[in-house]
Design brief:
Blueprint (H helix, E strand, L loop, with lengths): L39 H10 L5 H8 L5 H8 L4 H12 L5 H13 L6 H30 L2 H13 L10 E5 L6 E5 L6 H45 L3 H13 L19 E4 L3 E5 L3 H11 L5 E5 L7 E5 L3 H13 L9 E7 L3 E2 L10 E2 L3 E5 L3 H8 L1
Antiparallel strand pairs: 1-2, 3-4, 4-6, 5-6, 5-7, 7-10, 8-9
Helix pairs in contact: 1-2, 1-4, 2-3, 6-8, 7-8
């Protein structure tokens, strides 16, 4: 795929990704009548026979390759058969060779310019892959460092058998002083028995220090991985230039993107999504700057705060009446604006805002909280889309 009018990532469609630089796959086959290959009268008869509730849905379900806008247009015409005839006349001709050749010439002369959002998505995707690889490498090193106790056992066993070892030996075989397991201990023939034992003690201490340091590095890398995934979710849900620019600035601040020499343009800060209900307000952060703003500037002490459990996603705040209906909607919105959107039984934490804290020096969007309750949520997609219209 070189580029497309509408970008569809894995959060929007698990079946078919449509993004620049991704492999193109055909759309899933759809049972239906071809709107350009079947006689208009037969199409009209099939559409009217469809049991759907309204004419637009009848058209969508009967014809293949027809979008909602076209279906709505056809449904609003006085004469459906005449409208289909007109559609077939206008769109039955294939593109000319002249047009195809022109497009190919232009594409050969100049590579396509990818949108800023797509470039940032690819940058974050690459950084996630790199960080994940680092986590796996650190865990492998930690597993190797797990041999620390074996080095200590060898050292202790050598110390208990110093009189049985002679300088110049390459190998010493003896039962372990701890469980009588037979050990084969390699020796440096140039060292004394005591110095060989001290070598194993040094190796034990080195592995022990490495275990502590590696565990610390793994924790930091895993936190960075979770943070990068939160940025990826923010990019997927970003809808305007300001939101994308704020994410770009965030990536510059953490060193993933180099700061350009051009003078920074003055931009208006993007605003979190605000949903008005009859008796409450819901605020949703769509990037990490907005998440901090929603949680620590908008939310009051007794407001309810929501976030998917151990899944990157938006901070959601419910102000006003804490009715079961409002809570359920806020939980679904937290699940919808998260990496777990496509799943079922999505775990969502709920807690009063007063229990949500930001550690000193923490990355944007990162918080800790206590006294939370976790619910498992299934998203009513129709209800969410109706609310977000």
């Amino acid at each position: 795929v070189i580029d497309c009018l509408k970008h569809i990532g894995t959060n929007s469609n698990r079946v078919r990704v449509v993004l620049p630089n991704e492999k193109y796959t055909l759309p899933p086959s759809k049972n239906g009548l071809h709107p350009l290959a079947v006689e208009p009268e037969k199409l009209t008869a099939a559409i009217l026979a469809n049991p759907a509730e309204n004419l637009t849905e009848k058209i969508l379900q009967t014809l293949c390759g027809i979008g909602k806008r076209t279906a709505t247009f056809l449904a609003n015409q006085d004469d459906l058969t005449a409208a289909i005839k007109n559609l077939q006349t206008r769109y039955s001709s294939p593109p000319t060779d002249e047009l195809n050749n022109y497009i190919q010439e232009q594409m050969a002369q100049k590579p396509p310019q990818l949108e800023r959002k797509t470039i940032l998505q690819q940058t974050v995707k690459n950084e996630i892959a790199k960080t994940n690889k680092r986590v796996q490498a650190l865990k492998k090193d930690l597993a190797n460092a797990g041999n620390a106790d074996i080095e200590r056992i060898k050292a202790d066993t050598l110390m208990a058998n110093l009189t049985s070892i002679s300088k110049g030996q390459f190998l010493f075989k003896t039962p372990s002083i701890y469980d009588n397991t037979m050990l084969e201990i390699k020796l440096n023939p140039e060292l004394s028995p005591n110095d060989n034992a001290q070598t194993y003690y040094k190796r034990y201490n080195k592995f022990k220090r490495a275990k502590t340091e590696l565990a610390k590095q793994i924790t930091q890398a895993e936190q960075q991985l979770l943070y990068l995934k939160s940025i990826s979710v923010s990019l997927d849900t970003s809808q305007n230039k300001q939101e994308i620019e704020e994410i770009n600035e965030e990536l510059i601040n953490i060193g993933i993107i180099k700061k350009g020499k051009r003078k920074k343009a003055v931009t208006i800060l993007s605003q979190p999504l605000h949903i008005h209900l009859n008796n409450a307000e819901i605020y949703i952060g769509k990037n990490n700057r907005q998440n901090d703003f929603v949680t620590f500037k908008i939310a009051k002490t007794q407001d309810l705060w929501f976030h998917t459990k151990e899944i990157p996603g938006s901070h959601v705040v419910l102000q006003g009446e804490h009715s079961p209906e409002n809570i359920k909607l806020a939980q679904m919105l937290a699940a919808w604006f998260s990496q777990g959107r496509q799943g079922s039984n999505i775990p969502v934490d709920m807690v009063e805002k007063k229990y949500v804290k930001k550690p000193s020096g923490a990355q944007p969007g990162f918080v800790i909280f206590t006294n939370n309750r976790t619910s498992f949520i299934n998203i009513d997609e129709n209800k969410i889309k109706e609310i977000l219209k």
